[in-house]
Amino acid sequence: MSRVQRRALLKSQYFHMPRADALDAALADAVEDFDAGNLTGRHFEALGLVVIGESGSGKTTEINEALRRFAADPRPLECGLDRRFVQLALNGETTWKALGLELLKQLGFEVSARRTEHEIWSRVRTQLKGQGIWLIHIDECQHMFQTLGDKEVRKVLNALKTFMKHRDWPMVLILSGIPELLKKVNIDRQFQRLMTPVHMAPIDPAAPILTRSTPPSAGSPAPSVSTFPGCGTRTPICA
User: Fold this and answer.
1) What is the pLDDT of residues 110-132, one digit of tens each?
2) Which end of the chain is more exposed for a tag (fewer CB within 10 A), N or C?
3) What's the number of CA atoms in the CB half-sphere (13 Å) around residue 1?
4) How far apart are CA 230 and CA 135, in angstroms?
5) What b/e sequence results for 172-208 when a residue is b if at least 16 CB atoms lie within 10 Å of its CB, and e otherwise?
6) CB 112 within 8 A of CB 101
7) In degrees to the nearest 10, what's the CA dihedral of 24, 64, 172, 69?
8) Cα angle vertex 128, ends 51, 62, to 5°?
9) DSSP assignment letter at 227
10) What is the Cα–Cα distance from 141 to 166, expressed in whole angstroms?
11) pTM
């Protein structure tokens, strides 16, 4: 085995540690609350997570693995919905309109940037509902708030909050980023109430390792949201 192959083998390993259980529990609580809300047939507010940690703490890997475990369960929710979600990572400063365009791209439905913010997000909701997707993970979310003052931050948080309690198709949100993200989330007390913070501390070499994942076989595709069990291939909904 060459040095490159040995390094690739090490990079492919995932070690299930206690912090993964904490993330699983927080995700399960948000999903169960969403499921119960749908069973009531009444309007409800979905819950979400804000996962924070320093760069290099492994938060993105932990979220990917948590969603993989979640989607690996073949059973639908008790309300009948399948386990479908979408993920995206922000790169640099991102506006609310640009986020909507990127979400549409991830959903396989691209529109012109000349569309208004309202039109874009209306299409986003149509696509999410049509494809049965009710959970969104936005990584590196601090980029959405980098240059905004408190007034603009509140506007974005209010839009996210509206997304979570939309009467027609409420969404579970996972926001992840560096610790400064939590300060932005806490600006709005109502939004803060809906979001459970999960802190990803640096990995402790002395912490017990519960399980180790099996590395992928040679030639297997790199994991992505579209290949996670329960997600399948997205088919854009005409609107």
Assistant:
1) 889 899 999 999 999 999 999 99
2) N
3) 7
4) 12
5) bbbbbbbeebbebbeebeebeebbbebebeeeeeeee
6) no
7) -50
8) 25
9) G
10) 21
11) 0.84
Distance CA 63, CA 230 (A): 16
pLDDT tens figures, 43-93: 999 999 999 999 888 899 999 999 999 999 999 999 999 999 999 999 887
Crossing angle for the helix pair 117-130 and 96-106, to the nearest 10 degrees: 30
Q: How confident is the model over 167-223, as pLDDT tens digits?
A: 999 999 999 999 999 999 999 999 999 999 999 987 766 666 555 555 444 443 333
The number of beta carbons lying within 10 Å of the beta carbon of residue 117 is: 15
Residue 174, Ramachandran bin (φ over 0: left; ψ between -120 and 50: alpha; else beta): beta
CB count, 10 Å around CB of 17? 17
In the prediction, which pLDDT does 205 show? 65
Nearest to 33 by CA among 52, 49, 20: 49
Smallest CA-to-CA distance from 132 within 166, 77, 73, 81 is with: 81
Residues 6 or more apart in contact with residue 198 via CB below 8 angstroms:
22, 23, 26, 49, 50, 51, 52
Q: Say how many residues make up the chain.
A: 239
